[in-house]
Amino acid sequence: MYLLGYDIGSSSVKASIVDAESGKCAASAFYPKSEAPILAVKKGWAEQEPSSWWEYLKQATADILAASGADPKDIKAIGISYQMHGLVCVDKDMNVLRPSIIWCDSRAVPYGQNAFDTLGHENCLSHLLNSPGNFTASKLAWVKENEPELYAKIYKIMLPGDYIAMKLSGEICTTVSGLSEGMFWDFKENAVSKMLLDYYGIDSSLIPEIRPTFSEQGRVSAAAAAELGLAEGTPITYRGGDQPNNALSLNVFNPGEIASTAGTSGVVYGVLGDVNYDPKSRVNTFAHVNHTAEQTRLGVLLCINGTGILNSWMKRNVAPEGISYADMNDVAAQAPIGSAGVSILPFGNGAERMLENREVGASIHGVNFNVHNKSHLLRAAQEGIVFSFKYGIEVMEQMGMNVSKIHAGHANMFLSPIFRDTLAGVTGAVIDLYDTDGSVGAAKGAGIGAGIYKDNNEAFATLEKLAVIEPSAADAQAYADAYETWKSRLS
Q: 169, 228, 244, 366: which sits with the fewest CB atoms below 10 Å from its CB?
């Protein structure tokens, strides 16, 4: 008995087939092998053709079926993870009307800001838990104003995961979690946001039918089965945005639990058990995958644009030429905690929402030419990234989140002992490192939605924990002092 998971990213589409009983991944594949193209017709725009996601998915599916030898009839459920905040528009015949405006497209920023100012900051935050910002609803408002003839043809709007589910099943539906990430959900009213739709002049009929995150959301159609080599009638039983799904993949479901990633950008995603928001809108708050009207489970998302990209910049420009990341970590380890007074602000990759949309840039502070060398700079870069995480976690704590444990995949910056030890040391949290990824998590989410697993604990009982990093009591003050020095240089 198998489960199938898809992860629809902006750089590639990954598919994994998981043995439901052992919890082990039988095969994985991704397409394209080089990064998928993003269309940028104008500065600040970013679009992709939804049909390309489907083509990549077909190729990845063929590969995993061949590699695993699984009989498609033994695949009992399908789960979908997807890039958040994208807009897909289709007509009554389910034809895509325009390329998808994806998450990193910024054209809708003024639309969201005008809505925020006109409707009132407190009003938006108390209902939507966020500013309307550059999210999906604001992207749709841009289409309405700038492409009115195309807008008039729209039958339904979807998120990228909804589109893939439609292609698989021929049915159009969405979830509360998905609607919340697009700013279509009113948490006070527990309903689609009439306030924002009315402000933008958007008819509520464009919103698809809502189904629970863990539930049957359609079955593979005869046409899709023929295209993909799957069995007709296979149920689709889970979908979630990439960050909520990453948290699911790390078995983060309960208040106070944190999921973190640190690639080019860094993400801290914590679960909150009460409806709350940051008055300064420095973090994003969405319905987590297990949020219901009866059980509040919100995902509080902190994104730091300048994370791993700083470390890669240091590798190219500061570290000895040809050195590996592992060797670079060894060089950095020659410097003491706090890098002997050197601090680096890691914000050189655009405006940071955590800093109230300021673009403060990256900078190095406290260098003494008679004292410091490459080891201090390399360590200070990793510490600066961690301290930016800590700064954001303090926002979450102000919202009522008690952070005691961080779950992370064993990848990217979390491969660095300095990064891990500093994060544990400055937050006081235990870090659990796991071997998992988004498509495997989506497959297990499908197992929950299909009732194959009774709950998340059963689904992730076989999740492989690779390491546990405990905060060092002996070094706690040194980390705290270094963080305070770093923070003083941020102002």
A: 366
**SS3 assignment, position 417:** helix
Residue 222: CB atoms within 10 A of its CB come to 10
Given the DSSP bridges, would you call strands 266-272 and 298-304 parallel, antiparallel or unpaired? antiparallel
Nearest to 125 by CA among 279, 296, 282, 302: 279
Contact predicate 407/258, CB 8 Å = yes
Q: Are 86 and 103 in contact (CB under 8 A)?
A: yes
178-230 residue pLDDT tens = 999 999 999 999 999 999 999 999 999 999 999 999 999 999 999 999 999 99
Give one DSSP letter per residue of 306-365, joined into a string.
THHHHHHHHHHHTSPTT--HHHHHHHHTTSPTTGGG-EEEEE-SS-BGGGTTB--EEEEE
Q: Is 370 exposed, middle or buried (0-12, 13-18, 19+ CB in 10 A)?
A: exposed
Report the chain's terminal Cα–Cα distance, integer Å. Answer: 56
Query: What is each CA distance from 175 to 8, 94, 109, 211, 239, in whole angstroms?
Result: 17, 19, 24, 5, 8
Rounded distance between C-alpha atoms, residue 360 and residue 347, angstroms: 6
**pTM greater than 0.90 (yes/no):** yes
Question: Of 114, 155, 157, 156, which is closest to residue 132 (Cα–Cα)?
Answer: 114
